[in-house]
Amino acid sequence: MSLVQRVLYTVSNYPGGYRILYDILYDGKSPDQSEESFNRCLRSTLSRMKSKGLLKKPKNKWTITREGAEFLELRNSGIRKFFPKKKGRRTPKERNTIIIFDIPEKVKNYRDWLRSELIGFGFEQIQKSVWFGPKLPKEFIEYLDEINLLKYVRFFHANESDLI
């Protein structure tokens, strides 16, 4: 997923200031990218996205514009959304599911969609394609099977105390 798409997904789910965006996005940075270079890259990307009309920044809070939402929608047209956009992070009461996925490049729009949905369900990224969070709804897993993604996804049951 490009940085532009990651920024749009993040801002659409968690509108806020630069620090919030940085904290969420820096987790998925490239291992060879320093914090300083990521900071410069993110600031310049946000500036370009604002000038192109994809983002706006009223009262020091980044929000997605209608054009930004349309850009995301075009990238994911035909993919069902399970979790509604929300204003703040959801903290699930019981987190006991580890999800590992390896979705091929030819269907990367589904990979981007899956990451977005996992964030919506309250999952936390442990590594690029390893996530920890609450139990997923049966309908969501059935949809993964329906769109032929289930074969690329593995689910494990664990407690937070099981993580080292």
Description:
There is one protein chain. The protein has 164 residues and is of the alpha+beta class. The protein folds into 2 domains: 73 residues, Orthogonal Bundle (Arc Repressor Mutant, subunit A); 66 residues, Alpha-Beta Plaits. It has 6 helices and 6 strands, in the order H-H-H-E-E-H-E-H-E-E-H-E. The longest helix is centred in the N-terminal third of the chain and has 17 residues. The radius of gyration is 16 Å and the shape is globular. About 4% of the residues have low confidence.
Rg value: 16 Å
Task: State the fourth-level CATH superfamily of the largest domain.
Answer: Winged helix-like DNA-binding domain superfamily/Winged helix DNA-binding domain
Highest-level CATH class of the largest domain: Mainly Alpha
Largest sheet composition: 4 strands, antiparallel
**Percentage of helical residues?**
40-55%
Tally of individual domains: 2
Distance between the termini: 28 Å
In total, the number of strands is: 6
CATH topology of the largest domain: Arc Repressor Mutant, subunit A
**Structural classification:** alpha+beta
Sheet with most strands: strand arrangement: 4-5-3-6
- SSE series: HHHEEHEHEEHE
Strand content: 5-15%
Indicate the mean pLDDT.
79
User: Count of helices?
Assistant: 6
Gross morphology is: globular
CATH architecture of the largest domain, by name, is Orthogonal Bundle
